[in-house]
Amino acid sequence: MNKIRIAVQKSGRLHDDSLRLLKDAGISVDNGREQLKAASSNFPLEVFYLRNGDIPQYLRDGVVDVAIIGENVLIEKGDDIKMAEKLGFSKCRVSLAVPKSVKYNGVQDLQGARIATSYPNTVKDYLSKKGITADLHIINGSVEIAPNIGLADAICDIVSSGSTLFKNNLKEVEVMLKSEAVLAVSPKISSERNEILEKLQFRIKAVLRARNSKYILMNVPNSKLDAVVKLLPGMRSPTVLPLAEEGWSSLHTVISEERFWEVIDELKQNGAEGILVAPIEKMVL
After folding, report:
1. Of 2, 19, 177, 227, whose CB has the highest number of CB atoms within 10 Å?
2. pTM of the predicted model, to two decimals?
């Protein structure tokens, strides 16, 4: 049976979240952290555990068909590779940082500066658009120490919380791009495996919709139903059921979590009571 080959990071921040996504999509994979690959027992899929920086080349060569990879790595090493889906986790920024003691007035201050980075292509593209020329020092690994040992005037690296920069007496001064995990597709994927990819994407989209949505229930006075329904459009329209108490109804709907917090005060102002919010496991449209 034909199987689709998917690459995930062998270790690091993307590894666990990638396997959790596959699990939530109903795909069982034996723990292969110490192996090169592992097969799913219930879906035509093989997982390849690879170094993050090597994945774009494996995609390009057709060794793997798809990959869960950081968008920042794809931009740096695989801008010719198609991105099929943004996955919404492992969010970070690719930023420039300088020592806290340095007064920073703008990107023009980086003219002629020495910049340590693992993302030379990203830095070059960003600075060239700003008309800035800098001396890049390519470092594989921790770049935060470069200014402290006199190797560089600034660094470019991924930033999540900013705690690593803080510990190394650095400050973030330029955000070059924002990144998250993405599903990337090999240009050499076969038509048979592309059909399996479509099934995989269907499952992934159902999981991602559920993660970004909440199922909410509330009791609403009948006189306020129209106003509340306008606040909560739902997937198509809310479900309204009569309560035992005359003049009241129970309203059920699905809404994005972000949207819910925007309208919670308006719901209460329109008499909504007993508001319950529940997670959704899968959401198929």
Report:
1. 19
2. 0.84
